[in-house]
Amino acid sequence: MPALAADLLKRFAAIVGDAHAITEPADLEPFLIEHRDLYRGSTPLVLRPGSVAEVAQIMALASETGTPIVPQGGNTGLVGGQIPHNGEVVLSLSRLNRIRSVDPGNDTMTVDSGVVLEQIQKAADEADRLFPLSLGAEGSCQIGGNISTNAGGTAVLAYGNTRDLVLGLEVVLADGRIWNGLRSLRKDNTGYHLKDLFIGAEGTLGIVTGAVLKMFPKPREVATAFVAVDDPAAALKLFTVARGKAGAQLTGCEILPRIGIEMVLKHAAGTRDPLAEAHPWYVLVELSSPLEGADVDGLMQAILEQAFETGTVRDAAIAGSIAQARDFWQIRLMMSEVQRSEGGSIKSDISVPVGKVAEMLERGIGIVEKMIPGVRPVPFGHLGDGNIHFNFSQPVGSDRAAFMAHWDEVTRVLDDLVMELGGSISAEHGIGFMKRDLMELIKQPVELDMMRAIKQAFDPKGILNPGKVV
């Protein structure tokens, strides 16, 4: 795109004040680099508005002048959706960081979009409630970004995706108008549910500036187990047993490979192996109940006893304290991060029906191992909802750049397998820039027509996060 005129940049800067209009190259850098170093963007200006009114003024000026805007939260996205690939102005929501209200009686919290997820979790905890969205980047990601990407995380099995945790939204539209949809109702059957258009839209339809979030009763009793199994098929059998015995009290079920455990133990300080002997695969199982005195420990014992009797489980450790349970979860949450220390990592975020997870893993690993001799498969993730982060680390001693050159080839064969199994090429990371060109292959023409019609209706000038999603 052509360079933006200096006088126009000054008009934008005047809205937020010079202190919050970033132009120096060194100061711009953190807003331009994607977390995995896959993309490096460019921009002449980052705007950091301090109010919804300033966001509205920015978008009104952008609409008037046809200036493209890229909204950005904590810059933790993994598909390049938050990066200005073509010199667009970046609109950072980080100063909109106020928790507006907490209503324990209605089990809701109203927040600005720039509030960091971990702060929302803590605010809910202080109100003796739970906000269940939890993911590895929760210390830096912002709720507006979580909403705009419909983030998943480790609690989807029990509580659903971000979409299921949002009751209302406040959104600044492409022309600068503000839609106040901050409703806290559980039931409101009055026409189109407009909020759902913005959840998962990755900033292409409007800029989320506020949200009403659901809170839940805090778990009073929790049991956490780190369980060893021979293979993903056995992991699925364990999940079936746990779901059958625990029902809604099964609130976490994650699958982890041995190689991932070893990477965490090697690179994450303070971690230790939960079991005395190494096993090929592991399942992290969590049971919880909001009821005081609920015997989730006994229920966990019953699940494991049945699994041991059928030969499904090889070994298990049940957390004896809250601290030990956190240690178990820390291993899971660090699994993505530590792969950076092992060189290049080709990553896919995919999902299939739960019953086909084992087939996907077996076939996918076999295909990629034939393509790249010595490659190290590190698939892990949300067994209970069929979402696996299908990652591959470079062979030991190989050249990083040469390995990463296989990204498109590996992604293509895995996507083909996932589509064959009735799955999705993006389970929780979104489409962004990385997967935009795949939409023609995975969506029916009528679906794309509807998506483009919605985009045209909400953003007729194409200034909101251009080049992303559709």
From TrEMBL:
Its cofactor is FAD. SUPFAM superfamilies: FAD-binding/transporter-associated domain-like, FAD-linked oxidases, C-terminal domain. GO terms for molecular function: catalytic activity; FAD binding. The keyword Chaperone does not apply. Pfam families: FAD-oxidase_C, FAD_binding_4. InterPro entries: FAD-bd_oxidored_4_C (IPR004113), FAD-bd_PCMH (IPR016166), FAD-bd_PCMH-like_sf (IPR036318), FAD-bd_PCMH_sub1 (IPR016167), FAD-bd_PCMH_sub2 (IPR016169), FAD-linked_Oxase-like_C (IPR016164), FAD-oxidored/transferase_4 (IPR051264), Oxid_FAD_bind_N (IPR006094). Keywords: FAD, Flavoprotein. Gene3D superfamilies: 3.30.465.10, 3.30.70.2190, 3.30.70.2740, Uridine Diphospho-n-acetylenolpyruvylglucosamine Reductase, domain 2, Vanillyl-alcohol Oxidase, Chain A, domain 4. GO terms for biological process: respiratory electron transport chain. Residues 39-218 form the FAD-binding PCMH-type domain. Belongs to the FAD-binding oxidoreductase/transferase type 4 family. This is FAD-binding oxidoreductase. It comes from Microbaculum marinum.
